[in-house]
Specification:
A hairpin with a 4-residue loop joins strand 6 (68-71) and strand 7. The protein has helices at 44-60, 97-103, 132-137, 143-166, 210-213, 219-236, and strands spanning 6-7, 11-15, 21-26, 29-32, 37-40, 68-71, 76-80, 83-94, 110-120, 169-181, 184-188, 196-200. Helix 1 (44-60) runs parallel beside helix 6. It is built from 6 helices and 12 strands. The relative contact order is 0.16. The chain has 238 residues and is of the alpha+beta class. It folds into 2 domains: 6-80, Phosphorylase Kinase, domain 1; 83-217 and 232-236, D-amino Acid Aminotransferase, Chain A, domain 1 (2-Layer Sandwich).
Length: 238
């Protein structure tokens, strides 16, 4: 595979077989703090691909429009080409990470309502928080597009909370990215331990990228537990 169109921190993007598709290949690279911390973890790409593909299929079966078309191999997928909207939407169900630090809220505290945060997609600026009026003011997205993203995110959150509870995992928070595809706003990128916080429902053990961020060790073990539990739930319902 040649002609890389884009190299990201955790994925490479290649041309697809036609003008309306792309190929995404997951990498084994683990990064944190906007790439300041970096390490190769053999097998991470396969785990993230498997987890994200399973979740995207689950969401598509429940009416969520996504870029996912099919798996090509263990680390590569075929996706619909989309014009990526340059903001990330973070969904928080439980206080953790930067939210806890910024607002002085103990990590693990249940929030009285779901928190939605927009962040500008810009490594050079440190992905700063940005509000809806700022997004529309500088022309990143329209209010109608943002409303569509929020509506989709809320539906996704409800679906994934239920899915992960069945897998005995707390969905603490997660990041979503969206794109324009024709007249549709569709879910893009990935949903994996790289972009979510997953805690064991009973012990509170972290099963996500915080193991890497915080030098907790056994990063791939945590990712593997997420995949194994999700697979069991999917098999039970097929």
């Amino acid at each position: 595979m040649s002609d890389i169109l884009y190299t990201g921190k955790s994925k490479n993007v290649f041309p697809g077989p036609d003008k309306d598709s792309l190929i995404i290949r997951y990498k084994d690279t683990a990064t944190a703090f906007n790439g300041e911390k970096k390490e190769e973890l053999l097998g991470k790409g396969k785990l993230n691909a498997a987890i994200s593909n399973l979740i995207f299929r689950f969401l598509q079966e429940r009416g969520i429009k996504t870029h996912f078309i099919k798996e090509i191999d263990e680390t590569s997928i075929l996706v619909r080409k989309a014009d990526i909207i340059m903001v990330e939407l973070i969904i928080r169900n439980i206080a953790a990470g930067s939210f806890s630090k910024k607002y002085g809220i103990a990590e693990g505290r249940e929030l009285k309502n779901t928190v939605l945060e927009f962040c500008l997609k810009s490594d050079s600026l440190g992905d700063p928080m940005i509000n809806m009026s700022q997004i529309t003011a500088i022309g990143i997205a329209s209010r109608e597009e943002l409303d569509s993203m929020i509506n989709m995110a809320e539906k996704i959150n409800v679906l994934l909370i239920d899915l992960f509870l069945k897998a005995e995992i707390k969905l603490v928070d997660f990041k979503l990215e969206f794109g324009r595809c024709g007249n549709d706003i569709i879910l893009c990128d990935e949903i994996s331990p790289d972009s979510c916080r997953f805690w064991d429902l009973h012990t509170g053990d972290k099963m996500d990228k915080d193991r890497f961020r915080r030098d907790m060790g056994n990063v791939l073990e945590g990712y593997g537990m997420v995949l194994d539990r999700l697979k069991r739930i999917v098999l039970m319902n097929t």
